[in-house]
Amino acid sequence: MHLVAPMPEDEQAALPSGGRHLERMPWPALEAAAQRPGSTVVWPFGAFEQHGPQLPMGTDALFADHVLDAVLKQLAPELPIWRLPPQQIGFSPEHLGFRGTLSLSAETLLSLVQSVGEQLADAGFQRLVLFNAHGGQIALLQVAARQLRATRPTLAVLPCFLWSGPEGVADLLPEPERQNGLHAGLAETSLMLHLAPDQVGPERPCDGNGQQLPPEGWSLEGTVPTAWRTRDLSASGVIGDARGSNAELGAALNQRLEQGWVALFQALLRSDWPPVKP
Q: What is the tens place of the pLDDT at every residue in 107-125?
């Protein structure tokens, strides 16, 4: 078990009020942070894509940014963890049938993670967590993580998904929304009603609530997935049923997300994972 050393007083003095935000630190403070045992950087990932007529294009980035900030505030100050600004544009080709969606190519996102990750490793950081809130780039960020680890074996790379880490989040959602509410449905609309109600429009679409499902034995995501496009399933852009969305459910979802990620980051930061050999 890795015991976290307290931050030296001179390093604490070098840190501005930005605290855990790397972009707010002068380079000597950032350099000192990178050299601390177990130094960890979290990079939140979102997307710039349609989220139905009721949610903003930057929904995923807002979720990742908010939850990460809330989690970092709950971690002990001596833990060696910092964050990057959110990556606002991601890999969203499934939503390009809706005007306004912006999507990077797979090659561009892979190159971006590789370049930034290599430079963080060269600066001395020991872990990089890809804190992703967009389901459409889960697999791509896993590939990016493996490629980066191959070129910088001293950097642990952990690609994770906001909604699937903490326990008990899905238990708050009824079926069939738990399985089929993939995009801008009950969960996302409720969470946005809790976090930023002023950014939620009045519509509550349900046209993508599972009428157009794959053949028996196949699935949109999961064990036997298909490469679906949102236009295959929905005219509004919603894949699920947003009609029952409410701020109370959003608050419950947010609480479980925060509690779960606090526990997960505490376990990581107090460990010596991975066992890297020079």
A: 999 999 999 999 999 999 9
